[in-house]
């Protein structure tokens, strides 16, 4: 949700801020705004819509020479999408300017208090309480400096925040603070950057410090001080960002989503590299270190995630239970957190998150840790909050995923879960032959994916044919059930048509009532243990005139003869096939969305990183 950026240094701040906002736009794109300090006054501009609209308003950006500034790209929580509600927000005097990512939960009570003291609010946002609170602290504690006033204001706040603050009377200072919303500090030469994520500042520096909850950074062009809210200094390590600016670009692709789908073979190679021990039919993960043993001895695994990562977790459930014999429960993080899960001795919690910043997953992680359960992570973004807070973790190593629709993250998460299954299975009943066979097949997945990607044009034709339809069912059984759900999620999130994913066995328990000639079903019917049952389900749909698009194993002419359209994929082990069958569904959603004229990289109402609950 929302992206914030701040700059203090020796260069013009505005172009740096606009560039950073453009790179972080995938975090939220309802509206955007900037504020730049210029000789003891502040220049601000805001716009609804994507950053391009703000840039149009700032065509004379070069005339603004200020070297300190802040910017924001918004995913609306409190208040509609209007210029008034766009950030930055200011106090009554127009001296204090704040950008904020998060939610101020006690906004109502603070606003009442501040209004009773004479403060005038101009927006419907929760954020606006902050500059007014800082202004109030300034009045009350004139002997303190800006950092003291911000600290005092933050101590009054309940909720989550990543903020950056500038003040017209402090033209040499930028303040940032974090609580539960991601924020990092970029270190340049004679300059500092503040950003919600590294992509915003990678063009200028790859050296960063990750702020932790309850920390505040006081920056001048040449100094930094990081403290907690009680003004106790924090000792921080500097990290180097692993990936390059080129990785975060679109290259020759029209959209990030397509680029990332085509990156899947390489992503799987990167996720499994160095993690296979062919001689012993074993898998290894350096990141698990001593927790590898905890994992191996676990009596139950609780997988917790959201969205696409949750569906990857569901594939993991089938894999681990079938091949390692360990009971697995998979939960949506927002439910896990609130439903009082019963923990047992020997439980391990496995959290899965591409961004490593998803608020619900993070909250679930903290809940499990608070109950004394070891927490292991499967995370892509290095240094993200979830990666740092888990006891041990496995990085995905797939480079940045910028498209809001998660694609390469899903198949990489499944690949890692398959390796984890081998690791767990081999320390239990799994034979050397089974372990070796699985590993050999995992190594072939990238090639199978490359082969599947060749069908992109064929899939585009099918997507074109089905453009008039507004409802789709996605059906699969066993390993393909979570893939069906993931396929439906992809289609609805980027093309806004109604799609539901189901275990095909559930069809007769209600949803078959919807089937008619205008309601197509996308059926994953592979040459595996579920093939005959799936064929029966397809016949049931056909008997009700429902059109069928089948994802079938290459050479399966029987399926081809009963389906209206078919997309063939190469054969692999049933347990590994989700990595292949997900690809045509991602491509179908992509082409469908593009043909429908949707902005597939920035679907409406969504943001890449869901950092609010
Ligand atoms: O970064 P995470 O993997 O924790 O994100 C979880 C979900 O928000 C994410 O997968 C979301 O469902 C995607 N938009 C799906 O494409």
What is the compact description of this entry?
The protein is an alpha/beta fold and about 625 residues long. It has 19 helices and 26 strands. It has an eight-stranded antiparallel sheet with strand order 3-2-4-1-10-9-11-14, with helices on one face.
Task: Give the distinct bound molecules.
Answer: 5-amino-5-deoxy-1-O-phosphono-D-mannitol
Number of separate structural domains: 3
- Rg calculated over all Cα atoms: 25 Å
Q: Which second-level CATH architecture of the largest domain applies?
A: 4-Layer Sandwich
| Most strands sheet | 8 strands, antiparallel
The level-1 CATH class of the largest domain: Alpha Beta
Tell me the strand percentage band. Answer: 15-25%
Low-confidence stretches: none
Shape from CA axes? globular
Strand order of the largest sheet: 3-2-4-1-10-9-11-14
Query: What is the name of the CATH superfamily of the largest domain?
Result: Aminohydrolase, N-terminal nucleophile (Ntn) domain
Characterization of the model:
The chain is 35% helix and 22% strand. Helix 7 packs antiparallel against helix 14. The protein folds into 3 domains: 238 residues, 4-Layer Sandwich (Glutamine Phosphoribosylpyrophosphate, subunit 1, domain 1), CATH 3.60.20.10; 195 residues, Rossmann fold (3-Layer(aba) Sandwich); 160 residues, Rossmann fold (3-Layer(aba) Sandwich). An 8-stranded antiparallel beta sheet has the order 3-2-4-1-10-9-11-14, with helices on one face. 55% of the residues are buried. With 613 residues, it is an alpha/beta fold. It binds 5-amino-5-deoxy-1-O-phosphono-D-mannitol.
